[in-house]
Design a protein that fits this description.
8 helices
Length: 255
Amino acid sequence: MAATVTDYCTKHSNAISPNMQEVWDWTCASFDNADKMSSPLQGATMKFLAAWQQPKRVLEIGCFTGFSAMAWYESTVSTQAEIITMELDPKMIAASRRTFDKYQLNDRVTLIEGPAQDSIETLTGVFDIIFVDANKEGYEGYVKQILDKKLLSRKGFIMCDNVFARGMTISTEANPELPAKVRPYWIENGKALRRFNTFCKNDPRIDSILLPLYDGVTLIKWKPSMNVPIGINWGTNGSEKVMDREDGKRTLGRG
């Protein structure tokens, strides 16, 4: 039934671009674990959200083959958003670079190689959309690191994918059709994501909502009481970038 509903929704939603469809088809044909990639409907959802949000900077933790980075790229033409994406797996790094080279995305997409925790630590400024779709045991640490460093803009949101872990977050009996060879992997992910869900529910700095979409999607934003940067003002002061804050003050950072 779920597949039927997804197919119906896909047919009655905005279509992804031919380039995105090419990447999706190529990934499915080239990788045994292509099910880790976002679906075409999810890609269309990302484009819808980004077109609505009008971000100036997007951060992506977990790149896979570059499908989702392409979604952010295509939907931010009007803002010419900077897109930073991270990947650890050498095979997926090569696949992502193939996508970025073939479809000429390198003018606004930067791929950072290596462990996400280390890469996040090097970041400055704020991001209007942050997409987390990497190793599931790392979700809590990544989001906490993002919040501690105040990398999320005042009116931005974090979107975390696969929070249901193929149903294993809810119950190890939730998905009897899950293949036995991958069940232990997803059971461990489910344990980690239960801890992550508890963290999101209890952290006093954020509002979060866990939605029964795709394989579970969590959306996170700052509570209104949090005093954090609202975003980047693209004007500069010499070599310094000017960052506007919700309280009307300005923060200067070296550009």
